[in-house]
Amino acid sequence: MITIPYLTALTTYFSYGLLFAFGQLRDFFRNLVDWWKASNLQGYAPICLGLEDFYIRRLYLRIQDCFGRPISSPPDAWFDVVERVSNDNNKTLKRTTKVSRCLNLGSYNYLGFAAADEYCTPRVVQSLKKYFASTCSSRVEGGTTALHSELEEVVANFVGKPAALVTGMGYVTNSAILPVLIGKGGLIISDSLNHNSIVNGARGSGASIRVFQHNTPSHLERVLREHIADGQPRTHRPWKKIIVVVEGIYSMEGEICKLPEIVSICKKYKAYVYLDEAHSIGAVGKTGRGVCELLGVDTADVDIMMGTFTKSFGSCGGYIAGSKELIQYLKYTCPAHLYATSISPPAAQQIISSIKVILGEDGSSRGAQKLAQIRANSNYFRSELQKMGFEVLGDNDSPVMPIMLYNPAKIPAFSRECLKRNVAVVTVAFPATPLLLARARICISAAHSREDMVKALEVISSVGDMVGIKYFPAEPKKAQLEEGRVKEE
């Protein structure tokens, strides 16, 4: 867990307190003005009300130019960011015809498949001509093509499971499938920093939900032991089933799951393991097969494997992989399979082709080179940021590396100053993170060259000095060390 320095926490609280106080003051005077005006909506309750509405109006809108930036090119290592202007103090933004060519440090394009590819793109275009853009139907009503069947077989073989089910949206894979797997009388034990899709899926299931400290197997075991002993609330009957839900790489922290220890504990207490590999499949492991391969965990020990195609594979949609019985059951019961439109055929072809490149089935070694490049790029960029004095979260080999900002004033300052220097970064704040833990999330790609990363590091270092987010002393450079040694001699 993140330990915030006292001074940083104090100044962050003060900044939010100041913003909150001025916002409330402005609302007070706005209400006075509105009280004198006649309203044409007598009897209607406000649609937007509460602290969430206050946060959007008085805090978010002030810096909304830092979010939702439109682009006008593929999300490759470099892309075109459309410039926007505001004539009403940032309440609304209007697009202009101007674009800025920026270094892309925000997209999930881990292996570089999001742009044109010599193997994937011709096959995607061919599938578009054959099947067109959409099936316009769910999987059970005419929305299953030969590509969908091939995709499920390819995915199952790639992740090391007997069968797989593909859905049209990654978020829905969690939120729609968890309620099918477990219901009332069941227990979901979720990592405290799991993705919102997991949280919503767990809430929609009707099962009891308990949380364990982020990536802490010892606390997981304690929670499991206590709730197995207590049983269901009020009746104290045994739980119908228990599912432990974790992520391979946590998207806001860049940390790799302690999967071997968690699997061992779940085996001990006969709990199912549900692994979300949205950010790890294709990005880590010797052959890109995710955290199971990276950490040496047998996929047979993970009961349900979930992942998305929106990151490493340059497409859209998600999958669930498991036993043949599990997948057959989901095909009969999962609303994402029964009612939602199936994944677009060109998107399915993109996934199939990219997996073939990763496995070297395209007749080249580009897949292995991409995997080696993303690993080298990630470790180099992370180590350089740490040497500069930034507080960087996450583990080695992870392409996600958050830089802690904390203070609300530093969120727009860091984002805007980087954009001025043609480096596009993603900043993340409440409610996606806890209030005090705002950060900039860097996502590295195999498409980035060493020159790209050197430029990015120079810009981030310069802006970091300007904004004041280097919370640790920087390591002295080699030239300075050598100069110091000469003076000593």
From TrEMBL:
Pathways per UniProt: Lipid metabolism; sphingolipid metabolism; Sphingolipid metabolism
GO biological process terms, semicolon-separated: ceramide biosynthetic process; sphingosine biosynthetic process
The protein's name in its UniProt record: serine C-palmitoyltransferase
GO molecular function: pyridoxal phosphate binding; serine C-palmitoyltransferase activity
SUPFAM superfamilies: PLP-dependent transferases (SSF53383)
CDD domains the UniProt entry points to: KBL_like
InterPro entries: Aminotrans_II_pyridoxalP_BS, Aminotransferase_I/II_large, AON_synthase_class-II, PyrdxlP-dep_Trfase, PyrdxlP-dep_Trfase_major, PyrdxlP-dep_Trfase_small
Pfam families (UniProt xref): Aminotran_1_2 (PF00155)
EC category: transferase
Protein keywords: Acyltransferase, Lipid metabolism, Pyridoxal phosphate, Sphingolipid metabolism, Transferase
Ranges for domain Aminotransferase class I/classII large: 102-460
EC number: 2.3.1.50
Bilayer topology term: Single-pass membrane protein
Keyword flag Cell division: no
GO cellular component: a single term: endoplasmic reticulum membrane
Enzymatic reactions: L-serine + hexadecanoyl-CoA + H(+) = 3-oxosphinganine + CO2 + CoA
Biological source species: Centaurea solstitialis
Annotated compartments: Endoplasmic reticulum membrane
Superkingdom as given in the UniProt entry: Eukaryota
